[in-house]
Amino acid sequence: MAEVKRWLAKTRLLTLTGASGCGKTRLALEVVATRDVDFDEGDWLAELASLSDESLATPAMTSALGISEEPSRTFSETLGDELAPKTILGIRE
Asked: How far apart are CA 36 and CA 50, in angstroms?
């Protein structure tokens, strides 16, 4: 946990990798629960494990954040513009 917290303090994006079932999500949720790292706009969890198509990942994250689709823009554009100015922790499972 200490190493994850150190990395979160230094970077805007941190990816935890490892074999299925090794505890990545549990570790991320524990870091959030301890709140040693400040995320001004909060945190969110997007459940991606059950998705059958990678193209569904961005819409799932957009939904987890409560961001609505904008007809003239892609989900990626909307998500990027919404997240850029914020300090949040996102967990993609």
From this structure: 30
Helix (H) or strand (E) holding 45: strand 43-46
> pLDDT digits over 31-58, tens only?
878 866 666 666 677 778 788 898 888 8
Task: Indicate the Cα dihedral angle 6, 11, 13, 14, nearest 10°.
Answer: -20
Integer Cα distance of 2 and 83 in angstroms: 25
Amino acid letter, 26: R
The reported pTM is: 0.57
The tens digit of pLDDT for each residue in 54-86 reads 888 888 888 887 888 788 888 778 878 877 776
